[in-house]
Structure formats: structure tokens, C-alpha cells
Amino acid sequence: MRSKGILSELGRNKSLYLMVLPGVVLIMLFSYFPMFGLLVAFKDFNFRDGILGSPWMDPIYGNFKYLFSSTSSALRATWNTLYLNTLFIIFGILFQVGIALIFNEVAGKYFKKITQSLMFLPYFISWIVVGVIAYNLFSIDTGVMNTTLSSLGLGSVDWFATPWVWPIILVLFYVWKSTGYGMVLYLASLTGIDPSYYEAAKIDGASKFQQIRYISLPFLMPTIITLTLLQVGRIMNADFGMFYAIVGENAAIYQTADVIDTFIFRSLRLNGDIGMASAAGFYQSVIAFIIIMLCNKLAKRINEDSSLF
Amino acid sequence: MEHRIGNRMYHGLMYSIVVLFAVFCVTPFLLVLSSSFTSEESILQHGYNIFPREFDLSAYRVLFLDAGRLIEAYKISIIVTVIGTIASLAITAMLAYPLSLKRFKLRKALNVYTLITILINGGIVPWYIVCVKYLGLQDNLLALIVPYLCMAWNVFLLRSFFQTIPEEISESAKIDGAGEFRIFLSIIVPLAKPALATIGLFISLMYWNDWWLGLTLLNKVELQPLQLLLRTIQSNVQFIATSAQGAEIIRATGGRLPSEGIKMAICIVTIGPIVFLYPFIQRYFIKGLTIGAVKG
User: Fold this and answer.
1) Chain A residues near residue B123 by CB distance under 8 angstroms
2) pTM
3) Burial of B17 (0-12, 13-18, 19+ CB in 10 A)
4) Which of A116, A145, B70, B171 has its CA 20 to 30 A from that of A218?
5) Interface touch A132/B230, C-beta < 8 Å
6) A104 with B266: CB under 8 angstroms?
7) Within an 8 Å CB–CB cutoff, is residue B153 touching chain A?
8) Which residues in chain A have Cβ-Cβ distances shorter than 8 Å to B127?
9) Which residues cross the membrane (chain A) (predicted)?
10) pLDDT tens readout for residues B151-203
């Protein structure tokens, strides 16, 4: 009876089902199959037998033992991923909201158009190009930083061998690339605020700072919360492109700039160690899943509407 | 009076910050541009500079001696971007439209099905195995296109736009006897043109700037798109002398490749089309980001 209902529904809306079919299949292939493929973390994988055909690891957690052995850099990569992503989220919001608020205060159609275009430009550039820019700025002999330092008589620094500066440099690149993009969302919310709020505040003698603190910021809060939660939910995933293009295979700064995604990529493509790579990927996915669930719970507690699902 | 001076200082400060930040954003581009026009001796002696000390084209000359490889990479990037954008836009829109219809029975289930893939993923290892072992996506052009055809994020952006079109429009056409697909093509698509243009631009930017697919799924150097060629040359400038024109390049440069300049020159050649099109397309991006801001 029920299956007949499904059939007749399929028949009646045939074209709608046909329309969604390609998308549904592609999502199945490239998102759901890999999710089930996480199984590979418990297998002694070889390409000939595939994911299901390969034998189980013995012991079954074998790949993980290797991953967390003392020589492994997986824990360091985990720490770096969490630490750097936290910095990106904090500084990202500070700059996106801050610049949006300031930009909202200036006038002049052409002035605004030109400055906003310049700020948005870095978003359009691939990380590979950013990698070239990083080289241009920080290379030891010819980099702009060092030529500037030595022309001031300060000597030069081997940036690509100095781990502690990289969190700062990476944050700067992140801010450089994401602010123009991020501020658009906040600007849209700011222009939606009824001007009469500000007029009333002015009459009551509120300073500019107070107007921002008590009118603009509260209006931006829902957007800030939603966007932050989305980012926190992805805190275990580093931006592979960014790290691979800027840091690459420069082991001298892995101490502060090696992240889970680059670690997995190295194990997979350079060392060909699928076992360890898949164990690291499994571990990353599980923690990411827990964090997303917690985030969603938190979002629901703050505001029913800003939960993710 | 005091109040007015304070006000003027306040505005002066705001303008200065905006200008400073805009300069901060654009300076790296100028740096690369100027470096690409600087002679190798000058770079090695004085380092990269924001203005070229003496104008010099040798980096570009060497780069274009090996133009074959560059043109090949350009061709691949263009093919991938054009085919990828058209196919992806069609597939994305065809999934997004039914997801916006209240009369579509599977709407809720498929929404969750799509949303989950934004939040959770299997990571790169199983993805890589699925692509290479089961789908044969290795060392061919399809490998640079197919994996990105249906991105959940784009589906949601388009869906939230389709939701702003009153469902009565398509419903009344349906009562008049039009099929769903015809309604979609002849009524919905024309109405959604601005949104489709924006998402299409997002998609083409994604394909143009991508090198992840090439990095993981290609072993053949000949198939490298532009971005990947840039990376190959950046990490090994000598690579440029390995081409068919290698001997000629070595002769032309007296055996001394202007390696620093070449890295910057190919960087300019790579971002050239984007920077050139940028003034025309950027307002669509800004508009598109704001439709996406409607939470779905």
C-alpha cells in the first residue's frame, strides 16, 4: 500500500525527481561514500582490494597506535590546528566587524566604492599566489622585510626558519584575505538599522562610541554568533590551501605551522602511508563531529533561531 | 565649538583607518607587480622593492620563450572553468529549485541530506580512494571538474533565492498544464538570473583558483592547470628549463635563469585575468553575499 503511494508520487512529480537526481548522486559519491569510507582507518588498505575487500588491521586499532606513537607529530598538528583556527576566528571577527563599523561612518560614494574594491581584492586570489607573495616578503636574501630591516641597519632574519613568527604572519594573511569578504555581511546588517535609533541617541547626548556599543553591536550580534558558530564547528579543519601554499614542505617551521590537514596530506601523498593518514582523518572527523554537536547545543541555548540544524 | 573639532578629528580618524586598511590590502599586489619588472641583478642586490629600480622585461621574455607550456596550462584552466561552471550551475540550480518548493515531498529529507555534508565529511583519505579507485578520476580532465560539480553551500545560496519567488507563480503555471521542467526553464530561470549570475561567478572563481584537485589527482605534468604550474615553478624554477625550449632558454639567459623575476612574472600572468575582470564582476559578488546572508 505504502510503496504504491511512493510509486505514484514518483510518477506524478517525475520531473522534479529527475531534476534533483544528478545533484543527489554527486553528493552521495563525493560526500557520503567518503564518510562510510572512514572504515578504512581500521583496515590494512591496499588499492587492489579496495575499501571493503582489504583485510582488517590486526589489532584493529593498529593504525591509531602508529598515529599516536611518541615520534608522531599528530598531536602537535592537532594543537596547532586548534590554536591557529582560534586566532583566525578571533582576529577575523575583530577586523571584519571593526572595519565594517568604521566603513559605515565614512561617506562619499566613490571613496567607498574604491576602498571597498581594494579591500575585497585579496579574496579573489588563490592561496598559491599568496604563497608567492609570502616568499616575496619573507625570503631571506631578497624579501622585502629583510631588505627593509637591513636598510635600517637592523640585520636580517631567516623568517622561514623562525617558528615563533609564523602564527603572527598567518593571522596577518588571514585578515588580509578575509576582511573584505567578511565585512560585506556585517555592512548589510548595519545598513538595515533604522536611522531613527541613532537620531534618538544623539538627542540624548550619546557619544559615537556609545552609539556603536549600544545600537550597532547589538544589531550585529546574531550575525556574529551564527558565523562564529559555523567557524567553531569547523575548527578541526585547517584551510589546507593556505598552509600548503605558504608553509609547504618547509619542516623548519612545522613546530608552529603544521596542521592536521597538511599532516594527513603528507602521510598520504608523500609518504604513501594510507593507514596513518586514514587514522588521522578518522580522529579528525570524530572530534569535529563532537564539536559540531556541542556548538549546535550552545547555539540553541543562546537563541533558538541561530542553531545550525 | 569643541564638539565640532572632536567630530572632525573623529571623522578624520575613520577615513584614515579605511585608507590605511585599503593600502594594506593592495600593497602585496604592487610588490609582486614591481618585482616582475625588476632585473635579476637588481633583485639579488637590493631585494624586492615596491618600485622597480630599473624597468626590465627579461623575466617575461624568458617566460614567453617557454610559452607552449604556459598556453597549455591556460587552456586547461579555461576549459575546466567554462565546462565546470556551466555544468555545476545547471546541477546546483536543478537541486536547489525543488528544495525551495513546499509542494515537493522530499524537500525536508533532501535539505537535511545536503546540509549534513557541509557540517560533516569523511576527510581526504577516503575521498581520495573513492576518486581514484572507484571513479577513475585520476590523470584526466574530468578529475579537475567532477568533484566540485555539486557543492552544498552553493545549493543553499541558490535555494534561499528561489524561496523569495512566490510559489503561486509556478503553481498556477502547473494548473495551466505546464510540466515542472518547463516551468523551471521558462519562468524560474529568467526570474533568478541575477542570483544565477552571482553563483556562477562564485563557481568559476572556485574552478579558476583551484589546485587542490590537480595536486591530489594528477600525476601528469601536462594536465596541470595554471595555478598548479605556478606552484611547480615557484618550488622549482629550473623546471622551466626542462621544456622543449630548454636549450634555447639556457642560451638566451646565458645559463643564468632570472629565477626570482620569473616567479613573480608567472604570478602576474596567473592573476591577470581576475584583476582585469575584477572591476566588472565584484559588485555581483557583494550582492550575492547579501542574498546568502538570508539564513536558510
Assistant:
1) 34, 38, 264, 278, 281-282, 284-285
2) 0.88
3) middle
4) A116
5) yes
6) no
7) no
8) 30, 34, 37
9) 16-42, 82-106, 118-138, 158-176, 212-232, 274-295
10) 998 998 899 889 888 888 888 888 888 888 999 999 999 998 888 988 998 89
